[in-house]
Structure to design on (568 residues):
């Protein structure tokens, strides 16, 4: 197996590679038309003075060059189709990696950028010089047939150009890689600044943030300048060398013609054929840095693709019963050495509203992400309606789970498409979800109502508006399990009251609701409170918890103490 090319991808690309080989053979053989035509013109037509011979030779040459044009067009088209196959192979695996990636910073955008670079590289024909390179020996043989001296010049010239390319790579590789990494950090820093604009402007941090970004960027640009200096030096040497070789071939050919060892037509033919020998090499040298970067990204994508298991076919399950069971479940950050929450058991059923509370850093968000199926359990298992979440494909499981993170982000689509989770827009279901979330009136007030686009180029929604649309998205399809992380944090009093009513209604309709909150109004409507403290999960009925909470407006650990029974 070729490194970086899996068997599946090889099978996908095999027809394209065969066509590229066929078109490439035709195109490279037909490149001999021009030198052969020049030979005939100088050695036959000029000596004989035959106009008929000139016309027939010219017509034949034009015909063959038309075939060459068709072959070149064909392989460009095949390159574009091969790029499409590469996208069809890698893109689902990259998204699968994004779904399964639990440790470190998600790298979806980076991998899609690598894929785009590889596609562009193949689509634009940057790979073709490498496919043309095996034909260089054929042209060298033709040079040797014209004269051994001309052949040796071509051979030495090809070796020198390759040597220059090798030295260029060795001298600039480290600097180029370091500059790319540093400039990537600067770009990521700028992207982080975009998300914090309000805080930066409000606290006057933008100037210092700019200085920090400028420091990183200057370092990256300095490294890039050094690598570019090396690249420029060797590129100039390569081009000067090629021009020198052309002069030597023409001068040497003229000397050989004067000594009657070759014909005058061979001088021009030799120059043209030498260009064919050095052409692919020159293109490879000119695009060497791009080729190396593309190949490096290709290997990274291939490792990702090979690590992804083939998606197994599954039978969609019917709507599960509203029964959530945590069996000896320990919860922690994926990849962490120790769990945040020690193993515990807990069961919730239909109409249960579980309020999750605790101090900062006690693991509330980790708890919710694990229960929602976004993270695996550290130990033990979680099941919904008798089906373990870990064994349940997310595409099927997600239909029955609604989730609202702390920071609700909407997808670049219309409001209706966001609520329907990018699925078929069932107008009635979308309206029902929006009304249940208390978002209907707010959406009607937008420029295009439910058809209002959000995201880049669309309408900017406030945090509270996003929260309401996010709740509608979570309620879409009447989920069996509803998981909410601080849902009232960005809402006014009226919106918060509507949200609490909506949550209570969906619970009474037969769902399990888990809410991370410090809002006393939410806890008052809950059936059970789970208090996270020192790695333990303590459970208590909501009314008992509220009686033990200190102060009439206190929800517990946010400003006082609350008791509870440890969960078995």
């Amino acid at each position: 197996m070729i490194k970086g090319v899996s068997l599946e991808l090889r099978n996908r690309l095999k027809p394209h590679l065969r066509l590229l080989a066929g078109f490439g053979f035709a195109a490279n053989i037909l490149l001999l038309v021009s030198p052969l035509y020049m030979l005939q013109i100088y050695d036959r037509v000029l000596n004989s003075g035959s106009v008929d011979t000139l016309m027939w030779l010219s017509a034949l040459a034009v015909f063959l060059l038309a075939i060459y044009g068709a072959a070149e067009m064909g392989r460009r088209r095949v390159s574009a189709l091969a790029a499409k196959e590469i996208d069809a192979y890698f893109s689902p695996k990259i998204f699968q990696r994004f779904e399964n990636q639990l440790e470190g910073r998600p790298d979806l955008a980076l991998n899609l950028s690598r894929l785009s670079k590889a596609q562009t590289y193949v689509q634009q024909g940057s790979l073709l010089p490498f496919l043309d390179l095996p034909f260089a020996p054929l042209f060298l043989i033709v040079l040797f047939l014209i004269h051994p001296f001309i052949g040796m010049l071509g051979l030495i010239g090809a070796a020198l150009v390759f040597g220059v390319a090798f030295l260029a790579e060795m001298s600039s590789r480290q600097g180029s890689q370091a500059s790319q990494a540093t400039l990537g950090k600067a770009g990521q820093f700028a992207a982080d600044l975009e998300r914090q604009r309000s805080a930066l402007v409000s606290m006057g941090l933008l100037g210092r943030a700019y200085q920090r970004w400028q420091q990183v960027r200057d370092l990256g640009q300095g490294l890039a300048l050094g690598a570019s200096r090396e690249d420029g030096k060797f590129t100039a040497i390569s081009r000067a060398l090629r021009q020198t070789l052309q002069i030597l071939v023409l001068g040497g050919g003229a000397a050989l013609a004067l000594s009657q060892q070759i014909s005058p037509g061979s001088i021009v033919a030799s120059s043209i054929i030498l260009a064919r020998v050095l052409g692919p090499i020159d293109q490879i040298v000119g695009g060497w840095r791009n080729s190396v970067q593309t190949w490096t990204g290709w290997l990274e994508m291939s490792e990702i693709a090979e690590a992804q298991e083939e998606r197994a076919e599954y039978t969609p399950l019917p709507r599960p019963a509203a029964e959530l069971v945590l069996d000896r479940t320990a919860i922690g950050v994926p990849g962490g050495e120790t769990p945040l929450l020690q193993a515990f058991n807990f069961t919730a059923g239909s109409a249960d509203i579980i309020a999750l509370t605790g101090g900062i850093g006690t693991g509330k968000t980790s708890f919710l992400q694990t229960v929602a199926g976004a993270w695996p359990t550290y130990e033990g298992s979680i099941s919904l309606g008798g089906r373990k979440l870990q064994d349940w494909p997310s595409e099927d499981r997600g239909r029955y789970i609604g989730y609202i993170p702390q920071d609700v982000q909407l997808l670049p689509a219309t409001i209706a498409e966001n609520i329907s989770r990018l699925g078929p827009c069932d107008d009635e279901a979308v309206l029902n979800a929006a009304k249940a979330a208390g978002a209907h009136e707010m959406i009607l007030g937008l420029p295009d109502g439910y058809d209002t686009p959000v995201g880049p180029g669309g309408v900017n929604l406030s945090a509270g508006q996003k929260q309401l649309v996010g709740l509608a998205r979570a309620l879409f399809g009447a989920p069996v399990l509803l998981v909410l992380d601080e849902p009232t944090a960005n809402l006014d009093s009226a919106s918060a009251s509507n949200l609490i009513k909506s949550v209570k209604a969906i619970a009474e309709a037969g769902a399990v609701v888990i809410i991370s909150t410090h809002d006393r109004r939410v806890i008052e409507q809950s059936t059970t409170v789970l208090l996270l403290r020192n790695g333990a999960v303590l459970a208590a009925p909501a009314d008992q918890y509220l009686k033990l909470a200190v102060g009439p407006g206190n929800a517990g650990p946010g400003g006082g103490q609350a008791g509870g029974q440890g969960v078995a």
